[in-house]
Write a structure and sequence with these properties.
2 domains, 423 residues, 5-stranded mixed sheet, elongated, Rossmann fold, BirA Bifunctional Protein, domain 2, 8-stranded mixed sheet, alpha+beta
């Protein structure tokens, strides 16, 4: 037998009901992006590897373990993008967008790639939507992104979303904190995993991301106690804005986003899961004022966040949130080759008249097509059988009353408009 191919491990096809859920998330996210003034952006799926090694961090899990990196035929080192923020900052710098009115606000809905162990809700090719604001240093800019994402969850029907939030301070704050943290970690080194031991000197903050060193993390010093006065004031403003917007939040002193470019306010979105005590992390983000410097430019204040689409969709399904299929006003049912030809023409005429119309041209059973029209809750079904096709006529059935009327094909659009107007 010929070999049957499957999608690569950790990657999945999106079709049917799953595609409908994806489209629902995309539609709600895009509409809210437009309301809040975010413009769309799509960067290349492949970037120069240095965009991530310099921007995300050489000693992060993303760069060390999870990137798909390879050489092109021309010898360039490139990687499939594992996240969206660094490529967007690269685009901002490359196209001199700092010359435009600031801030510049971006929205994306895109696939990303990380070589991780596949598990529920985690894939090697996965989708995220996100928001980035570059060129403005203000607490209200951070909160606007939290607000727009919170509103998207709310509109999608996801309840009890909680924002966990912390402040990582600026570079000077963190340098002071790292000294204290290193001392603590050296005392507890016997309890550290091999990765944390290796990173302890150069990147001790990674211990807060480690799922193996939970006991060490629980007893560790808190970065909030070491941030400077200006960082405290900025963080206080963020929390006040959140309270004003009535967005629920929890202070999490151990929340350290796993990418090196983050500074200042950082946060993650959580929602309860059925049958699981631990809430589900749906996404997160924060401020990254130093990312532009890492990519060779001067400092550009920036903030952003991303949300996992697969996780959002899975949670919607788990919570029984239904996707309402759009109801067409008219359904066309046909029987026979000549009827199919007539149906195609009528379909185009109805569409051009701005009438919502549906069909099942691929089906030959008239009964199946009528059942489909009923399932879609179409107000009117147009039936064209062999006899009607020859006579250039159509049977118009009112799906509520069941009454039928035969009329000339040329009268269909006018009559459908009249009947829809009266419903």
């Amino acid at each position: 037998m010929p070999k049957k191919f499957q999608s690569p491990s950790g990657m999945h096809d999106i079709f049917g009901v799953q595609f409908d859920y994806f489209e629902r998330v995309r539609e709600v996210a895009l509409r809210n992006a437009k309301i809040y003034g975010f413009k769309g952006i799509e960067t290349p799926v492949i970037e120069n590897t240095e965009v991530f090694t310099r921007g995300v961090g050489q000693m992060t899990d993303v760069v060390e373990k999870e990137m798909y990196t390879f050489k092109t035929k021309g010898g360039d080192d490139v990687s499939l993008r594992p996240e969206g923020t660094a490529p967007i900052m690269r685009a901002f710098i490359e196209h001199n967008l700092y010359t435009k009115p600031q801030p510049v606000k971006f929205f994306y809905f895109s696939p990303f790639f990380r070589y991780e162990r596949p598990q529920a809700g985690r894939y090697r090719q996965f989708w995220q939507f996100g928001f980035e604001t570059i060129g403005k240093n203000s607490a209200i800019v951070d909160v606007q992104i939290i607000l727009v994402i919170y509103n998207i969850f709310k509109e999608l029907g996801i309840k009890d979303v909680m924002v966990q939030i912390n402040n990582m301070g600026e570079e000077n704050c963190r340098n002071e904190f790292k000294k204290v943290l290193k001392k603590y970690l050296k005392k507890e080194s016997s309890l550290l995993c091999s990765d944390c031991k290796r990173r302890m000197d150069k990147n001790p903050l990674r211990v807060f991301d480690c799922k193996k060193c939970i006991k060490v993390k629980e007893g560790a010093p808190q970065i909030i106690d070491y941030i400077c006065k200006s960082c405290r004031e900025e963080f206080k403003q963020v929390l006040e804005f959140l309270e004003e917007a009535e967005i629920p939040y929890d202070l999490n002193p151990f929340l350290i986003r796993g990418l090196d470019y983050y500074t200042g306010t950082v946060y993650e979105f959580f929602a309860p899961q059925k049958g699981n005590e631990d809430p589900l992390a749906l996404g997160g983000g924060g401020r990254y004022d130093g990312l532009s410097v890492l990519l060779g430019d001067e400092e550009r204040p920036a903030t952003g966040a991303a949300v996992g689409v697969e996780r959002t969709v899975n949670l919607m399904k788990e919570n029984g949130i239904q996707i309402n299929e759009e109801k067409p006003q008219v359904f066309i049912a046909q029987l026979g080759d000549l009827a199919k030809k007539k149906s195609l023409k009528i379909f185009e005429e109805l569409k051009n008249a701005k009438i919502d119309v549906a069909e099942s041209f691929g089906q030959d059973s008239l009964k199946s097509q009528i059942n489909r029209a009923d399932k879609l809750s179409a107000a009117i079904t147009l039936i064209i059988g062999k006899e009607e096709a020859v006579e250039d006529r159509v049977i118009l059935r009112d799906m509520d009353s069941g009454e039928q009327e035969k009329m000339k094909t040329c009268e269909v659009v006018k009559e459908v408009k009249r009947r829809i107007k009266g419903k």
